[in-house]
Write a structure and sequence with these properties.
The complex is a heterotrimer of chains A (308), B (398) and C (251).
Chain A: H1 8-44, H2 55-60, E1 65-66, E2 74-75, H3 78-109, H4 112-127, H5 130-152, H6 162-186, H7 190-198, H8 203-214, H9 216-232, H10 235-240, H11 259-265, H12 272-307
Antiparallel strand pairs in A: 1-2
Chain B: H1 2-38, H2 44-48, E1 54-59, E2 76-79, E3 84-90, E4 96-103, E5 112-114, E6 121-122, E7 129-135, E8 138-142, H3 147-155, E9 161-168, H4 174-205, H5 210-221, H6 227-245, H7 253-278, H8 281-289, H9 294-305, H10 307-323, H11 326-331, H12 349-357, H13 364-394
Antiparallel strand pairs in B: 1-5, 1-9, 2-3, 3-4, 4-7, 5-6, 7-8, 7-9
Helix pairs in contact in B: 1-13, 4-7, 4-10, 6-7, 7-10, 8-9, 10-13, 12-13
Chain C: E1 5-14, E2 17-27, E3 32-36, H1 43-50, E4 60-68, E5 71-72, H2 80-86, E6 87-90, H3 101-111, H4 117-130, H5 134-137, H6 150-162, E7 168-172, H7 180-193, E8 198-202, H8 206-212, E9 215-220, E10 223-229, H9 230-235, H10 240-246
Parallel strand pairs in C: 3-8, 3-9, 6-7, 7-8
Antiparallel strand pairs in C: 1-2, 1-4, 4-5, 9-10
The chains are: A mainly alpha (308), B alpha+beta (398), C alpha/beta (251).
Chain lengths: 308, 398, 251
């Protein structure tokens, strides 16, 4: 609407609302600026006489801290990056098939009433806060993993470690993948499914070869979203990861830590470099999430173009 | 070839059913586990009680040696002299304790005077633990001697009570509940106006140009940010801000509410915008054609119709607030408090679980009880949203 | 000669509504049979009975017999998958799969278990040639099928159906979504195809029926009013309703 038709009252309203809109839009800016500022400090300043942290070492080192706290600046987050990505993708390996197949069932196979119930179940799962997942992880998964490790001959720190983290994250990712995939699958044009059946394919063949194929763009988006959330998850992970101080950890029964778990539990101080460094981790986290999203979206486009 | 097809079909279908069962099992697992572990502790006392146990030392007021009529059971010990019934029991750690079962309304033990302040009156209550009772010129009744001995001592008419030491068992979550309620209130107070007005701006007033498009993108980007990053925002911006303008001196509840408000913002904006979009353009035209200006049209005609959507956003927000942990751990702290002050650190229910689970030893039982409460509230919120939506459909608005 | 498909007293209900009433019809091999009539009179429903695609609709009930090569294809114990391999279908709107042109045509054979690359290549080439599409796409078989024009997509769908080497091809208004030029090409194609296949085509256009079909059945309100050679139907209709429809008095 052109401003000519706005009365004086409207102009005031417009002005006030613009301010409100600007406030809302500004938060992401604040986040970026403030965290970036505080996060690069350890690399640029002298850290109260301790010397600056080497950026290269920070990104590649495999031990969290060489030397005593408040004296050493040898922080290394390299292994955290590797762990975080490793765990996120492992958990996707579990949650993706479960999620997509459940979505297929709800969207195409289940009778209407059951589909409705299942949809509610998935909605409930996605509403459960992460701390509860962490609680179940500690109380239920850890003892099981501990016994499993023992029976296989591995030592494990009470069950904490990679496998526990992967399970918890997989559990949390299932509702995300299921709900997005389900919408995608449901919106597949029935006509091509009929075409497939008319060619003499069975229902199952049609579902797997045609329906899932046609929905693959949406399904992929769901997976990307799930990975993003897994990368950023903090409380649930920190309860079951075990807080390893060095790495990277690939063994399923060994303790591990992620970027987020270190931000949450690895830092006890409220001042100085041990405090500031968590902002540096925050920057690393955002960069990892952004890059992962960009790369995965690029792959999604490429794969999408090949077929349709 | 047909048999091969049939085999692969059966296999694939099997996987589909397996996957679905696993998803259902997942939900069942969580609810079942949380309920089994936590149901025992669920009680009204839990909600009303302090978390930290508190010891009291007090003196008995002057008593007339009344005799009370008491009905003890076989396992309990009655002290007719003071209107008190005690029992031998165990605390959560397994140690023997002497538990108070009954205190008569007019018992002198209901008007104990605290030693530290000299005039504060406290009542011994059912559920409290008697630790020791000191007498004039007689040996002290101790927990280690047992409830029977303490009862016998107290009933002895020669003994004059000098000092009573008792404890309020902790493990209550009142502090965290109050914190959570404060958080919900403060956060919604900040987030709803900001969010709804922003939605009105974007949907009703903003012209379509690069600036507003950028503003919109910036606002929506917030959804992809993990909550721990919001925690960082909280401690760099909101905590120092509140320290400067309020009596706060460190992490505090208000800063926590501000952080939560930013977390909720994109959801509120998106939900409200969708509700605004559903309002038919005709209504706006009709209002303007009647001579109303745009402001009146938006606030008196359009917005009221978007109320169900705003309600949905509110319920979603409450669910989110209750479940949020990572950001609050940074901004609100992880220290469980019994008296809650909005300028001080505290714990919400979710953070309370966190604090207990990272403690040594982890209190899984109480954590599960809190989890039950959280899940119940989340369930209610979700059902409310469904209720709102179906109401909207019935009224033909969805 | 025995008709390849013989329908006797076919009734079809969608819940309470009766869509087909006592249809009796014979389809002869290597002929083009056109089903004409106003909208909603059951032509497409009837067509879908022949390859049991109506099974997909909830609340559908069928009585009567459909003999395919003398066997009761309407029976619940009949091999429906096998039927659909022998009775192919082309739909009103082109519906290529979101895959390459090659994969579209090869889909049917692949689902039946054909894995040999050479065999598949031959099948694809043969089918595309029969569908008069080969010349236009032979150099870009790996391109996405959705990039083709509407007419090309429909010919692709025909090629896809032909790849199964069916005996009968059912066409449900195959040119109604296409422009006149594309329509012409497909009509020419049908002329060629009938040498090797039996074709049953539902069409809204009487001109199309007159142009390309050997036999025509006139449907009205779920019944077959008249059925005979196209020449007879159009020149000498027996029933007044047929005459009214053909002369455009309704429909």
């Amino acid at each position: 609407m052109g401003s000519k038709s706005l009365s004086r009252v409207d102009r005031i309203t417009y002005f006030l609302l613009t301010i409100v809109g600007l406030i809302s839009a500004s938060f992401i800016v604040f986040i970026s600026i403030f965290i970036a500022l505080k996060g690069v400090l350890p690399f640029l300043t002298d850290n109260l006489g301790l010397g600056s942290v080497s950026l290269f070492k920070f990104l590649t080192q495999t031990v969290w801290l060489n030397g005593p706290t408040f004296v050493s600046t040898a922080y290394g987050a390299g292994f955290l990056i590797v762990n975080t990505l490793y765990i996120a993708f492992l958990s996707l390996l579990i949650s993706f098939p479960i999620g997509v197949l459940t979505a297929l069932f709800i969207a195409k196979i289940a009778p209407k009433k059951i589909a409705g119930i299942l949809r509610t179940i998935i909605e409930l799962l996605s509403a459960i806060p992460s701390i509860v997942y962490g609680l179940v992880g500690v109380g239920f998964f850890l003892p099981i993993i501990y016994s499993l490790a023992r029976s296989l001959g591995y030592s494990s720190s009470g069950g904490s470690g990679t496998l526990a983290t992967v399970f918890v994250l997989a559990l949390m990712s299932i509702p995300t993948i299921t709900s997005i995939s389900e919408v995608s699958i449901r919106s597949v044009d029935q006509s091509i499914e009929h075409a497939s059946l008319a060619l003499g394919a069975t229902f199952t063949q049609t579902r797997f070869k045609i329906t899932l194929l046609a929905a693959k763009s949406g399904i992929f988006s769901g997976a990307i979203l799930a990975i993003g959330r897994s990368l950023g998850e903090a409380t649930a992970v920190s309860l079951v990861a075990g807080n390893a101080r060095s790495g990277p950890t690939f063994g399923l029964f060994d303790i591990t830590s992620t970027i987020t778990s270190t931000m949450l539990t690895g830092l006890k101080e409220t001042q100085g470099i041990d405090y500031d460094i968590r902002f540096s981790l925050g920057i690393v986290l955002m960069v990892v999430i952004l890059l992962t999203n960009m790369i995965l979206n690029y792959i999604k486009k490429k794969v999408g173009n090949v077929h349709a | 070839m047909r048999n091969k097809t049939r085999l692969s079909d059966i296999l694939l279908n099997g996987f589909v059913y397996l996957a679905t069962s696993l998803s259902v099992l997942a939900l069942g697992l969580i609810f079942f586990y949380v309920f089994t572990e936590g149901k025992d502790l669920l009680s009204l006392d839990l909600i009303r009680g302090n978390y930290h146990s508190r010891n009291y030392v007090a003196t008995l007021p002057q008593s007339s040696n009344d005799s009370f009529n008491l009905q003890p059971t076989e396992q309990t010990f009655a002290i007719e002299r003071f209107g008190l019934i005690l029992e031998q029991s165990e605390n959560l750690a397994g140690d023997s304790v002497i538990r108070v079962v009954y205190v008569a309304d007019d018992s002198p033990f209901s008007q104990l005077v605290l030693q530290e302040t000299g005039n504060e009156v406290v009542s011994l209550k059912e559920g409290m633990i008697m630790m020791r009772i000191a007498y004039e010129n007689h040996p002290t009744s101790l927990t280690s001697r047992g409830a029977a001995a303490m009862a016998a001592d107290l009933n002895d008419p020669d003994r004059v009570v000098r000092e009573v030491m008792f404890a309020q068992v902790g493990g209550g979550i009142r502090g965290s509940i109050i914190t959570t309620v404060y958080l919900i209130g403060l956060t919604l107070m900040m987030a709803l106006p900001l969010g709804v007005l922003s939605a009105i701006f974007f949907n009703e007033f903003a012209p379509r140009n690069m600036i507003t498009k950028t503003m919109r993108t910036f606002t929506e980007t917030l959804t992809g940010v993990p909550s721990i990053i919001f925690g960082l925002l909280g401690i760099t911006v909101f905590v120092p801000l509140t320290i400067r303008i309020t009596p706060a001196s460190g992490s505090n509840l208000i800063a926590g509410a501000m952080t939560l408000a930013v977390i909720l913002l994109p959801t509120i904006i998106r939900t409200t915008e969708e509700a605004l979009k559903v309002v038919p353009a005709d209504h706006r035209f009709a209002s303007l054609a009647l001579g109303a200006n745009k402001t009146q049209t938006v606030f008196k005609v359009v917005l009221p119709q978007a109320i169900p959507g705003i309600l949905t956003a509110t319920f979603l927000g409450i669910g989110r607030i209750i479940g949020e942990s990572a950001a609050l751990i940074f901004v609100l702290g992880a220290a469980i408090k019994d008296s809650v002050n909005i300028y001080q650190p505290s714990t919400s229910l979710a953070v309370h679980i966190w604090a207990m689970m990272t403690d040594e030893p982890a209190n899984v039982a109480l954590s599960s009880t809190i989890a039950i409460i959280i899940l119940m509230i989340v369930l209610v919120m979700n059902l409310s949203i469904k209720g709102v939506v179906s109401l909207m459909i019935k009224k033909g608005r969805a | 000669m025995e008709p390849i498909i013989k329908v006797e007293n076919l009734d079809l209900y969608y819940d309470k509504f009766q869509a087909l009433k006592k249809i009796s019809l014979e389809i002869h091999q290597n002929k083009v049979t056109a089903l004409i009539g106003p909208s909603g009179c059951g032509k497409s429903t009837f067509l879908r009975c022949l390859n049991r695609m109506n099974d997909l609709i909830e609340g559908m009930r069928m009585d009567g017999t459909i003999l395919f090569h003398g066997e009761h294809s309407e029976s619940s114990t009949y091999d429906v998958i096998g039927l659909r391999k022998k009775v192919g279908m082309v739909f009103q709107r082109p519906n290529p799969f979101p895959m390459s042109i090659f994969d579209n045509v090869a889909f049917g054979p692949r689902q039946q278990g054909e894995k040999n690359k050479q065999v598949l290549k031959e099948i694809v080439e043969k089918s595309l040639k029969q569908a008069a599409l080969w010349d236009e796409v032979s150099d870009r078989l790996s391109e996405s099928a959705t990039k083709l024009s509407g007419g090309q997509q429909q010919r692709l769908c025909i090629a896809r159906a032909i790849a199964m080497e069916p005996e009968v091809i059912l066409m449900d208004e195959p040119t109604s979504a296409l422009d006149p030029l594309a329509t012409q090409r497909i009509e020419d194609l049908i002329e060629e195809l009938k040498k090797n296949y039996t074709i049953i085509i539902v069409t809204h256009s009487m001109q199309q029926a007159a142009r390309i079909s050997d036999k025509t059945a006139f449907f009205l309100m779920g019944e077959v009013i008249e059925y005979g050679s196209t020449a007879d139907i159009f020149a000498n209709p027996n029933d007044k309703r047929t005459e009214d429809y053909i002369t455009g008095r309704f429909g």
